[in-house]
Known about the structure:
The protein is of the alpha/beta class. The chain has helices at 33-40, 83-97, 118-129, 146-162, 179-192; strands at 3-9, 22-27, 59-64, 68-72, 103-111, 134-139, 169-170. The protein has a single domain (3-192), classed as P-loop containing nucleotide triphosphate hydrolases (Rossmann fold, 3-Layer(aba) Sandwich).
Amino acid sequence: MRVHFIRSAFKRSDFPPQDRPEIAFAGRSNSGKSSLINTICKSRSLARVSSKPGKTRSINFYDIDGRYYFADLPGYGFAKVSKGMRESWRSLIESYFEGRDNLCAVVLIMDIRREPEEDEKMLMEYLNYHKLRVIPVLTKKDKVSNNEARKRQKLAEKFFKDMKAQNPLLFSSRTGEGVKELWSRILNSISKH
Length: 193
Ligand SMILES: Nc1nc2c(ncn2[C@@H]2O[C@H](COP(=O)(O)OP(=O)(O)OP(=O)(O)O)[C@@H](O)[C@H]2O)c(=O)[nH]1
Ligand SMILES: [Mg+2]
């Protein structure tokens, strides 16, 4: 697979043309979005993995094999950032979701150790309103025991069922668990778009 970084977008006019299927990756800051993109692209350094959460302020676009775009969205849910920062996040995200017709699915990434919260609920309602397909992923599975993972998965299943979304899949960027299943869901959403 040939993958490369295209650009960081801070406004609509920076977005690439809508000439191919696109998949977006959304989730709380520090949930593991960039790591997941690197893992499924078999690249160590395609997407910048942050040591400081909430650093990504732009939408980062990647070219996947000249066939698709991946969009790494800035993380949400940063209690520590200013209101001004939150507003600029909101306006960038809204300008992205409103009218991105080539967008086939949004991979919603959650740290398996966290329960879905108000932020996830709001994002899900927003995505449902825009009739966007959601692929929920519980990542960092290697951080918990299998027992704990099952417990977390059950909780998340209920949440996503209530939100009329697919069942979440278990993933780990450390072990590669879930990579095949995620690709199959991504390709499925592209073929159905
Ligand atoms: N053990 C483990 N650590 C992970 C996994 N995925 C991500 N991490 C770690 O979690 C931290 C955050 O990962 P990122 O991929 O930068 O998260 P992000 O969602 O892109 O963060 P922002 O861009 O700041 O919103 C890093 O220290 C990663 O090494 C995983 O599956 N397992
Ligand atoms: Mg990131």
